[in-house]
Structures are given as C-alpha cells and as structure tokens.
Amino acid sequence: MRVAILAHEQFPERAKTAVGVLRYGDQEVVAVLDRDRAGDSIREYLDEPRIPNAPIVAGVEDAPEFDALIVGIAPIGGGFEASWRPDVRGALERGCDVYAGLHYQLNEDEEFARLAAEHDCELVDVRDPPDDLTVSEARAREVDATVVLAVGTDCSTGKMTAAMELREAAREEGLDAAVVPTGQTGILIEGWGIAVDRTISDFTAGAVERMVQAVGDHDVVFVEGQGALAHPAYSAVTAGIVHGSMPEKLVLCHEAGRQAVHGYESFSLPPAEEYAALYERFADPVAESAVAAGMLNTSGIDDDQQAREAIESYAEAIDAPATDPIRFEASAVLDTLV
Amino acid sequence: MRVAILAHEQFPERAKTAVGVLRYGDQEVVAVLDRDRAGDSIREYLDEPRIPNAPIVAGVEDAPEFDALIVGIAPIGGGFEASWRPDVRGALERGCDVYAGLHYQLNEDEEFARLAAEHDCELVDVRDPPDDLTVSEARAREVDATVVLAVGTDCSTGKMTAAMELREAAREEGLDAAVVPTGQTGILIEGWGIAVDRTISDFTAGAVERMVQAVGDHDVVFVEGQGALAHPAYSAVTAGIVHGSMPEKLVLCHEAGRQAVHGYESFSLPPAEEYAALYERFADPVAESAVAAGMLNTSGIDDDQQAREAIESYAEAIDAPATDPIRFEASAVLDTLV
C-alpha cells in the first residue's frame, strides 16, 4: 500500500504516528504532508537507513500517486483540525482511503462520508474500539508468555517505540516475541489492536486483557503502554493497561530532560526512582511487577557521550539497565526482560 | 414521583441502587420487586426511620400504582438479566417510565423502545454519559471548596453512602455542602451527574473535573468515588476520579471483614494502612491529598460493641478517625474533613 502521511507543522518531533509508521510500518510511504517543511525530504529530519527518503510536500496536490492518506498527528484531545480538511477531501477525491486514529470519527463527518461514498473509498477510524468489550476477569497472567509492559513518565516518551524495538531485538535473539498494540500508531503498524484510550473506562482493563489473550502464547509479549500513571488527564488509561495486562516486568520510558507533564507544565514529573516505585506499588495488588529496564529518549541531546551519561544516571535512578533504543540498541536491556 | 424498584433475588445486600434510592432519594417508593422475598416488607430488612415501609412483591403485576420503575440492581459487567424483562415490559405497558443505570442501554433494546413509544413513556439510561466530554485540564483545584473524595478498598464499600451522609452531617453543622454523583445510584438520587465508569477512558478525569466545576463553590464538596485503586477490573475508573477531582482529602471506605476483592476472590485486599498509602501516593503528583477519615461498613457485625472495636482498629490502621455512617454517625469524622 502506497501512503501519504499528514503531519502539518509537526514533523517529526510532534508527529509520533507519522514517525512510527515510517519506522515500523510495512506501508510504502511516498510523501509526508507538512506545509512548514514543504520542499525538504524525510531523511533531513530522520536519518535512519530503515526510513524511506520521500519528499515532504505542502498538500495532497503535490504528492506522488498513493493509495491511502494516513493522518499522522494527534493533538491533545484527539480533535480534527480544520486546516487538515482540504487534504482529506483531496485524498478522497483522488479515490484514496483515509486512515486516522483521532477521537474525532471521520466516518461521522458528513462531508467525508459523502465523498468516500462518491469515490468508493474507505474512512478507517482505527481508534474506534469493538462494541462487545467487557470487564476484565483478571486472567492475563494465564497466558504462557513473559508479559512486559512499556510504561512512561509522560505521554510521548517512547512506549510504542520500546515495544517495537524490543520485539525486534528479541527476535534477533531467536525468541518468539509479539507486540500488543494499544494505540492508533501501533494499530496502524500492526494491522490489529484496540485503542484503549477510547474504551469505556469500566472495560479498559478488559480490552487489554482480551488483547493479551488474543496474542496468546509466546516467549515474550511486549505490551505498548499509554499515558502515564501520574498524568493529570490520562492516568485512567494507564491504570487500566497496567492491571489489565498483568505484566511481570515493566520498562519505564522517559524523555531526557523532561521535568513537567507535556501540556500540563505546572505539574512536575515525579523523580524517576519515585515514578518507578509508584508503578510497582500500583501494579502489585493485582500482579506483582518490577521495573526491570528503562528507555531514555535522548534525541534532545546532541552529544553521544552526554547521551550515554544521561542513560547511566537514569539507569541508576530506576535501579535497572537502561538504553535509548533509537540512538543505541534496545538489545542492551533485553537480558533482564526475557 | 411514585416508583417501584426492581431488586430481584438481591434485596437488600446486593441491591445498592435500590437501597440508595430508598435511603436518600426523594421519590415515593411504593414497592420493591424481589421474587425471593415477596410478601415481606422493606422494614424487615432495613429498619431505619427514613426508609419507607413499602411491600416487597414478586413482580410489577403485584405492585401498587406507580409512575416509574427503577432497576435497582447492577450485576458485575452491567448487563441486563433476561428474568427482569417481564417487569420492564409490564411497567411500560402500564404507561410507566423505566430508569436504569446499566451498561446495557434500554433505549437500544428493540422491544422496550417499541413499547415505550406505544405507551408514550420514557426509557432513561442514567449511565449514558454526555457526548461532548473532553480531556481534563487539571483545574478542579481552582474551585473554591474543600473537595473531599470518598474512595474504597473495593466496590460496594459505601462510597456513595459516605458522600450522602457527610453532606447531611455538614449541613447539620450549618455548612454549605454539596455532592458530586459519579454513579447510577447517585445520579438517580440527585437528578444529575455523569456515570464515570461509562465514559471513554481518555475523558474519565475530564468528566469528573467538569462535575466538580459545575457544582461550583461551596464550603465543602463530597465527591462520590467508584471502584477501587487496586481493583483488577475497575482501577481505571478510580484513577480518573482521583486525578480528575483533585481532592484535598480522602475518605477511605471499607467493609469490615472483607479480605478479598468481591467477585475476584483470588485477589487479596491490601491491608488498610497500605491501601491508604497507595491512594495518597497515587494522588500526590497531581493533587496532594491525605486520607483524613475512614468509613467502615459494619453491617455484617451483630454486636454494637464489636462494631465499635472494629472501627477503632480500622481507624488505627489508617491513622485517621473512622465511623460507620449508617450504624453510628457520619458527623464523628466531619471535623477532620471540613
């Protein structure tokens, strides 16, 4: 499938769905739409061999031929920005499907629904959960696999990345490893999953339990976490994932230097050691669990040596090995997890 | 409004909505429907002056004339039991409205919707949340009121009762006190509110924030909690309420003698002192909060002296004054809360 990815004004730092699909998806990306960076190319921002060097364009009219448009950004609250409308409209008029993972449902947008019908293409809201979810029975531990949950100190700290990179590292070691995708980017990459932040809160843990059971027996299952346990707005989602997945081990993801909750800057992040202890203490009554590794996003640090030092002090704080799975290797922490 | 309350096979111990409406609602209750206790009367089970002594009957056909049927029980999972169908059908055929707080939506039941239309009566699903909820902005603390949140060690430990009894006790002291109802029973009693366990998990904290803001400035606001922070299935709901309401004080509700999670008996409840510390530690990064009082449901203890002793040892465990607001007085713990 040839895709264009919409990431206006936010590529790449605040376009985590776009970057996730570029890095881990098996779609062929022909362009990124970002009107602020039109004329540049993807590799100028993300210099990784696995990432294709497609052009960045101002809108669908400048993109090479493609089969589907993916909305690759998600603002706080999951709304649809009016300024994206011409591109979605243009994609549908060209007969292309549109994928999005917003709270705003494209299928419920009158204009988009009409255009999709007219041009015989599909609107795919990957955040729309199944309607037969139920309460958790607290049986995720019965799966024959080491369940490892990637949690974070905040949103956008690399939980999805941790799960994807750890699966790859585990497979390279010859292990049978799987991922449970719990958010729109993971679902777009994997082609299945439930956006747990969109589930009814009574069923949030149950949705995660269902996915852990569905993915079934493996050597190791890496569950993508969401939100953060001390997040003022999203802790409900996180709580449901921690108790629903009943992990044996936790990987705590953090962005180097981040000291306050993104978008809620008056709320300080607890120190890493306290945050790790909070996750363990919260998990324990349902499923005893330990922070066994850390992932530190050091993309904001220019110097490799400084990045290594930041990782070392993070590892010391959480009392577990740590790495930056993008700058360095996820495999550095695999031994403590499997 | 004259109401009959459906509570088949579960009155009164496992019919908390029925008991809540009987105790705190301003509806005129003309009958309770419980086929196992037909021929008895309410006071044989609940001997409180404020509770009306209406008959218990086997079904709507035996009930005195009424205006609305309230479904007064809620099984784990919030489903609709087939054995309740004749009573709901019968109520609608008599031209009565039907109120329910189930996950199962009466309005989406074809037969009920048709009967309601035919007989010009209403199906009221009080658990149906507004469809314009958003993420929390973490601003509940800006309300000019002492916000007190009733939390629990499990479901059905008396959180709603605590909120209602504390409001009454505060008003008797001359304080301007309000309740924020977060569950179906509270909503049925108060005539407003949002069933937070039915909200999209990303918006759970936001729904609670909205209610705290809506109830506005008072001397003290008692927020009804839901679920429990160490509950394998419902912790997402609880997490959203704790962070969304940003309480200054917590009241920890517990049922004397309960040692395991109801319905999840392989999961032990953490000891009360650990549970109190878990709530505080979880709340702190968003809103510093202290367990300032305890409520112990001693209805399973026959002897008053033994009940007092149980309350004393519970108070010692959580290091805060405690009471049983039904058997004794909620006012016993009011001073530490307001």
From TrEMBL, chains A, B:
InterPro entries: DgcN-like (IPR011669), DgcN-like_C (IPR035086), DgcN-like_N (IPR035402), P-loop_NTPase (IPR027417). Residues 36-129 form the D-glutamate N-acetyltransferase-like N-terminal domain. Residues 135-333 form the D-glutamate N-acetyltransferase-like C-terminal domain. It comes from the Archaea. It holds the Pfam family DUF1611_N. This is DUF1611 domain-containing protein. It comes from Halapricum salinum.
